[in-house]
């Protein structure tokens, strides 16, 4: 083999090793995001994880803490949403555990107030903002929003 050819094969082998080290293995029936048009698919086991095709390789991602995968360009962040907004987790569990801060059970979410029925907290990356229900409405824990008193 002349040295130019040797060099070519070494570069090829090196690129292959890099390619294998990159990306995660798809297990079981997990859909390959690189074989879809959207390049993003839900994880088959956990509702707060998803796979994205990055540089031709499937990569596993977690939604921001407290959010679950909703689909490409859906939800409150790019692809992730509040779990109660739909039946995202009916048949799947969440992989992540709550990372709470003051007033926030999870880093992202909407949570009831400790002492008031007309107030609640919206949490964004662990930062809580106090919200107020007006016009005689009360915070509804189930819908995570202000509601008529007879529904709460
Ligand atoms: C969330 O907050 C942490 C520190 O509290 C910060 O390091 C991180 O960059 C923030 N993430 C986002 C997406 O804003």
From TrEMBL:
SMART domains: ChtBD2
Domain of life assignment: Eukaryota
InterPro entries the record matches: Chitin-bd_dom, Chitin-bd_dom_sf, Chitin_bind-dev_reg
Coiled coil: none
Domain (Chitin-binding type-2): residue spans on this chain: 31-91, 101-152
Keywords tagged on the record: Chitin-binding, Disulfide bond, Glycoprotein, Repeat, Signal
Cleaved signal peptide residues: 1-23
SUPFAM superfamilies (UniProt xref): Invertebrate chitin-binding proteins
Keyword Membrane: no
Pfam family, one: CBM_14
Protein name: Peritrophin-1-like
Taxonomic placement: Eukaryota, Metazoa, Ecdysozoa, Arthropoda, Hexapoda
């Amino acid at each position: 083999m002349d040295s130019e050819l040797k060099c070519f094969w070494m570069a090829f082998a090196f690129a292959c090793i890099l390619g294998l080290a990159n990306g995660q293995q798809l297990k079981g029936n997990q859909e390959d995001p690189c074989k879809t048009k959207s390049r993003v698919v839900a994880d088959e086991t956990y509702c707060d994880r998803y796979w994205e095709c990055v540089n031709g390789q499937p990569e596993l991602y977690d939604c921001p803490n407290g959010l679950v995968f909703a689909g490409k360009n859906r939800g409150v962040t790019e692809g992730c949403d509040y779990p109660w907004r739909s039946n995202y987790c009916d048949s799947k569990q969440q992989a992540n555990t709550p990372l709470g801060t003051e007033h926030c059970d999870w880093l992202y979410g909407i949570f009831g107030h400790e002492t008031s029925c007309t107030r609640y907290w919206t949490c964004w990356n662990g930062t809580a903002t106090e919200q107020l229900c007006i016009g005689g409405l009360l915070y509804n824990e189930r819908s995570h929003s202000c509601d008529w008193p007879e529904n709460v």
